[in-house]
Write a structure and sequence with these properties.
Belongs to the acylphosphatase family. By secondary structure, this protein is of the alpha+beta class. It has 2 helices and 5 strands. It has one domain: Alpha-Beta Plaits (2-Layer Sandwich), CATH 3.30.70. It has a 5-stranded mixed sheet, covered by helices on one side.
Length: 113
């Protein structure tokens, strides 16, 4: 029997729209709690991903989630924590990670070795 209701489908609900953003920030961005503040804001907005210090003195991070929440995080990244001074940034849109590649939380990647 055909379904007469145009709003009914047999498929599972679609995943909410998501974006993935990668950003590298330069300036006074290490030693000023930038990673902790980024993680706190990302979790508040329901984003997943990571943030880390780079050997060149910059901070790099990747965040995935709803576009409106990504934009909120970007606003915080441009400002940085109180003692930070963001002088520049590079950004790139990335493909959304799904399945085994997907992040499940927002983490701080610490140096190893």
């Amino acid at each position: 029997m055909d379904n007469l209701c145009p709003f009914y489908t047999n498929s599972s609900p679609a995943e909410p729209p998501a974006d993935t953003l990668k950003r590298v920030l330069s300036g006074k961005v290490q030693g000023v709690c930038f990673r902790i503040e980024t993680q706190r804001n990302a979790k508040r907005y329901g984003l997943v991903g990571w943030v880390k210090n780079r050997a060149d003195g910059n901070v790099e991070g990747e965040a995935q989630g709803p576009p409106s929440e990504i934009e909120k995080l970007v606003g915080h990244l441009k400002e940085g924590p109180r003692h930070a001074k963001v002088m520049g940034y590079q950004e790139a849109d990335l493909d959304v990670k799904r399945g085994q590649e997907a992040e499940t939380t927002f983490s701080i990647i610490r140096k190893t070795g």
